[in-house]
Write a structure and sequence with these properties.
heterodimer, A: 300 residues, mainly alpha, MetI-like fold, 14 helices, 74% helix, 0% strand, elongated, B: 335 residues, 2 domains
Chain lengths: 300, 335
């Protein structure tokens, strides 16, 4: 048997790794549910323009604050009711899924890229450079993340792009710390010395030799950051510092709904529920990923 | 122990300097001239502009400005608010007790419920209680608390009419501000119903603020308990024939609580971030709402000092957590 496995191609090894990953991931039922909801959200976001029954910014002046269809006074063509200016809430929620996914992807990409490079440099070179970088990361971590993001947005100016940049800056130290710790552990291993002896340069050692072996904790952290980014961006939107109206971003929708909550509970309930479901699904997935990627847990 | 404390204090110096640099540079990153910002819409004459710049020290090199800033800071001078014209530090200190009161009650709720839930879930691993409470914890962990606050207001204040929507106490009551903590002051005042009113006002905001820490503490306690229960010394204690209650309470729980204490400490930052949202929703007159108002009013001295003071509070709390950690876990202290 052993000589058969030796001949396995790279693609076959990857297939095996994938099936092993799926084996552990799928043992966590919550994670599978989370993945299913997340995929549904991705589908909704991609096909939002076809799925939404109405234009999300169109105001139906004859249908202000209509309750959901199943309540008295509701109309079947406005399934989840309408907001104070007569926009269809369901259509806005569907369109809003694009914002949340976009925010998550952009924030995680920036924070991951920045954090990985900073962490690689700090962990690989060590010494004063490492000390300096890590102290700067400590400073960023000393501020409550939402507060720092808020102040950064105040500096940059309110808006979705700036909110995403601010959140990414605030999240980036977590990736830097993780990468640094992983790099420092891997740096001592023999395969790294072997590569160095074989003549690999620093860049090759950092990005091609060491980095691929530090990926597992980064994936888990990326998932957690994705859900936090959705939550924090919604919070900034809610405070008027994120996406600006009339954008159907879920947090911004909640902010607009605030003054109507005593008369029309649905305008505040559904956007928040959408945030909760999205964040919960991603967190469920994150739990499953940790189970599947953490070798310590796998053995037990 | 003294060496341990000193080394931790020394470790904080670079972080503190970094925090002051961020707070110092914040208004300088803003688009526009600080003097013009202060002058408001009416603007200033060029002579007055030069005079103000010199008075505020904006004409000096940046490095000198920073040391001036640091010097004033060490004398407790944090500038005056552009809006209220009061010293920022005094304003912060007058609002801080409200946030501390809310935060303390929230962390109290979170620990009081979170630790037992985590312990029971670990002992009864796989039971319906375990599954239900951990699902609940994950929902709590994922909760957009600004929405959760609105839901509670809709239901308890709007529909049932049980709790007030905003503020710290009913306007009917008036008594001297002794400690700044409404619960204590209302008790001292001896007025009928004042304490009950304070509790009624506090209950929803503290539940909202407690939600995420409660979820985190319950999850952390459960996993710490599970880890400890599989240790050899727990097995030994059991094998000796020690009662189950004593094994769990003395051997397992005491060791499992060590990481939990760290988790509780780490929640302080979460609490302060949560306070910004919670105080905004419930119009709670604390520093969270004050920061938001200052940011939207473009009151930069207030934002600058608020940033510094909040980071300072987080730093001090983290230090205290570190020291407690050393106290309950000698292995850390003697490293």
């Amino acid at each position: 048997m052993s000589d058969v496995s030796v001949k396995l191609s790279d693609a076959a090894i990857r297939r095996r790794q994938l099936s092993e990953f799926w084996f552990y991931f799928s043992r966590n039922k919550g994670a599978v549910v989370g993945l299913a909801i997340f995929l549904l959200m991705v589908f909704t976001a991609i096909f939002a323009d076809w799925l939404a029954p109405h234009n999300p910014t169109l105001q139906y002046r004859d249908a202000l604050l209509l309750p959901p269809a199943w309540l008295d006074g509701g109309r079947a063509d406005f399934l989840l009711g309408t907001d104070p200016v007569g926009r269809d809430i369901l259509s806005r929620l569907i369109k809003g899924s694009q914002y949340s996914l976009f925010i998550g992807i952009v924030v995680v990409s920036i924070a991951l890229l920045g954090g990985v490079i900073i962490g690689l440099v700090a962990g690989f070179f060590g010494g004063w450079l490492d000390a300096l970088i890590m102290r700067i990361m400590d400073v960023i971590l000393a501020f409550p993340s939402l507060l720092l993001a808020l102040v950064l947005v105040a500096v940059l100016g309110p808006g979705l792009t700036n909110a995403m940049i601010a959140i990414a800056i605030v999240y980036q130290p977590h990736f830097a710390r993780l990468t640094r710790a992983a790099v420092m552990a891997e740096k001592q291993r023999e395969y790294v010395s072997a590569a160095r002896v074989a003549g690999a340069g620093n860049l090759r050692l950092m990005f091609l030799t060491i980095l691929p072996n530090c990926v597992a904790p980064l994936i888990v952290q990326a998932t957690l950051s994705f859900s936090s980014a959705v939550l924090d961006a919604a919070a900034l939107g809610f405070l008027g510092m994120g996406a600006q109206p009339p954008a159907p971003e879920w947090g911004t929708m909640l902010a607009e709904a605030r003054e109507f909550i005593s008369r029309a509970w649905w305008v505040a309930t559904f956007p928040g529920l959408a945030i909760l479901i999205a964040v919960l699904a991603i967190n469920l997935m994150g739990d499953g990923l940790r189970d599947a990627l953490d070798p310590k847990l796998k053995r037990s | 122990m003294i060496r341990f404390i000193l080394s931790r204090l020394l470790y904080l110096v670079p972080t503190f300097i970094g925090i002051t640099i961020i707070a110092f540079s914040f208004p300088r990153f803003l688009a526009g001239d600080p003097v013009l910002l202060m002058a408001g819409e009416r603007g200033v004459t060029p002579e007055r502009h030069a005079e103000l710049s010199a008075q505020l020290g904006y004409d000096k090199p940046l490095v000198l400005q920073y040391f001036d800033f640091l010097g004033r800071l060490l004398h407790g001078d944090m500038g005056t608010s552009l809006v209220t014209k009061k010293p920022v530090l005094a304003e912060f200190l007058s609002l801080f007790p409200a946030t501390v009161e809310l935060g303390l009650v929230a962390i109290f709720i979170a620990v009081l419920l979170g630790v037992p839930i985590g312990v029971i879930a670990a002992i009864k691993r796989g039971s319906w209680f375990d599954q239900l409470s951990m699902t609940g914890a994950l929902v709590g962990f994922s909760m957009p608390i600004f929405w959760w606050g609105l839901l509670l207001i809709i239901f308890f204040s709007g529909y049932l009419g049980w709790t007030p929507v905003s503020g710290r106490i009913s306007l009917m009551y008036f008594f001297p501000n002794v400690t700044g903590f409404m619960l204590i002051d209302s008790l001292i005042s001896g007025q009928d119903g004042a304490f009950a009113s304070a509790v009624q006002h506090l209950i929803l905001p503290s539940i909202v603020l407690a939600t995420i820490p409660l979820a985190v503490i319950a999850r952390q306690t459960r996993s710490a308990m599970l880890e400890v229960m599989s240790e050899d010394y727990v097995r030994t204690a059991r094998a000796k024939g020690m009662p189950r209650r004593r094994v769990i309470g003395v051997h397992a729980l005491r060791n499992a609580l060590i990481p939990v204490v760290t988790t509780i400490g780490l929640q302080i930052g979460v609490l302060l971030a949560g306070a910004i949202l919670t105080e905004t929703i419930f119009s709670w007159p604390g520093i969270g709402k004050w920061m938001i108002d200052s940011i939207s009013r473009r009151d930069y001295p207030a934002v600058q000092s608020g940033l510094l003071l909040i980071a300072g509070v987080v730093m001090v709390v983290n230090l205290l957590v570190d020291l407690t950690y050393g106290l309950i876990n000698p292995r850390i202290r003697h490293r």
